[in-house]
Automatic annotation (TrEMBL):
The lineage of its organism: Bacteria, Pseudomonadati, Pseudomonadota, Gammaproteobacteria, Legionellales. GO terms for molecular function: 4-amino-4-deoxychorismate lyase activity; branched-chain-amino-acid transaminase activity. It catalyses: L-isoleucine + 2-oxoglutarate = (S)-3-methyl-2-oxopentanoate + L-glutamate; 4-amino-4-deoxychorismate = 4-aminobenzoate + pyruvate + H(+); L-valine + 2-oxoglutarate = 3-methyl-2-oxobutanoate + L-glutamate; L-leucine + 2-oxoglutarate = 4-methyl-2-oxopentanoate + L-glutamate. Pathway: Amino-acid biosynthesis; L-valine biosynthesis; L-valine from pyruvate: step 4/4; Amino-acid biosynthesis; L-leucine biosynthesis; L-leucine from 3-methyl-2-oxobutanoate: step 4/4; Cofactor biosynthesis; tetrahydrofolate biosynthesis; 4-aminobenzoate from chorismate: step 2/2; Amino-acid biosynthesis; L-isoleucine biosynthesis; L-isoleucine from 2-oxobutanoate: step 4/4. It comes from Legionella spiritensis. InterPro entries: Aminotrans_IV, Aminotrans_IV_CS, Aminotransferase-like, BCAT-like_C, BCAT-like_N, Class-IV_PLP-Dep_Aminotrnsfr. GO terms for biological process: amino acid biosynthetic process; folic acid biosynthetic process. SUPFAM superfamilies: D-aminoacid aminotransferase-like PLP-dependent enzymes (SSF56752). The keyword Lyase applies. Coiled coil: none annotated. This is Aminodeoxychorismate lyase.
Length: 277
């Protein structure tokens, strides 16, 4: 059974021992938004974490009820009403070597305060291409050096974030968010086969769109399609939806009515709340 470590305001320091596989990049994380003292989409985050842990061979016994208990305990301990909580799952201690298997995975929860940034974002294409077949991109792993380098490149170029493209030169995602394109009355987003992370909000937008009769297509998005788009927006679990002001010099409508509709649907989403189903 996992014994969670909760960090808040420096009250505790979580130190992964030097033999933990997370120091080789063998670890996962989830970042949940917190509203009115409750974690948002806890079941969705738990399912993705457990699915990735299983795929990576991380032997973790964490039933959903215990997951929720750990989250709620961390938020009470931090007395947090609004913000987020980051959850790290390390693969556990193991002898040296790439093929050794970790034991006793560690779960570290860090509640934090933050505000939602609604300012439209400026994007620039990352200067290198990703391989869509790389399985790392399909998991929310702690391997974030590439994203850090891309974000620094964007900042140096006067942008806010970098948009990745794959070897086929179709759009993927930014360093921290999934991408949506609006053309007419249709939503488009890169398919999972493009090499993107199956984002929690991305998935809910597709599900809500289907329920509400909004045309939503998962497909390959070319640079020409991005150039001709009416609007672009990004989404992630912490920030929700954020309009794109520009990408590589092309500008977009930052107050598109369809984006506003999707934002409203998310604000009323019942799956947003904690549940015990």
């Amino acid at each position: 059974m996992i014994v969670p470590i909760v960090i808040h305001a420096g009250a505790e320091v979580a130190v992964f021992p030097g033999d933990d596989r997370i120091l080789l990049g063998e670890g996962l994380f989830e970042t949940l938004r917190v509203v009115e003292g409750k974690p948002c989409y806890p079941r969705h985050h738990w399912f993705r974490l457990m699915q990735s842990a299983d795929m990576l061979g991380i032997d973790v016994d964490l039933p959903y009820c215990e997951w929720v208990t750990h989250l709620e305990h961390s938020l009470r301990k931090a007395n947090l009403e609004t913000g987020g909580v980051k959850v790290l799952l390390g693969a556990g201690s193991a002898p040296r070597g790439l093929l050794t298997k970790g034991e006793q995975p560690r779960l570290v929860l860090t509640p934090f305060s933050c505000a939602v940034n609604t300012k439209p974002i400026r994007l620039i294409s990352a200067p290198w291409l990703r391989d869509a077949a790389n399985p790392v991109y399909r998991h929310k792993s702690v391997n974030y050096l590439e994203a850090i380098m891309a974000r620094r490149y964007a900042e140096t170029a006067g942008a806010d974030d970098a948009l990745f493209f794959n070897l086929e030169n179709t759009a993927m995602e930014t360093t921290i968010a999934n991408l949506f394109l609006i053309s007419g009355d249709t939503l488009y987003t890169p398919s999972l086969s493009s090499g993107v992370l199956p984002g929690i909000i991305r998935g809910r937008i597709l599900e809500l769109g289907k329920e509400q009769g909004i045309a939503c297509l998962e497909t390959e998005l070319t640079k020409n399609q991005l150039e001709q788009a009416d609007a672009l927006f990004l989404c992630n679990a912490l920030q929700g939806i954020r309009a794109v002001q520009s990408w590589d010099g092309f500008t977009y409508n930052t107050s598109h009515p369809l984006a506003a509709t999707v934002t409203e649907l998310l604000s009323k989403d019942t799956c947003h709340e904690r549940d015990s189903r």
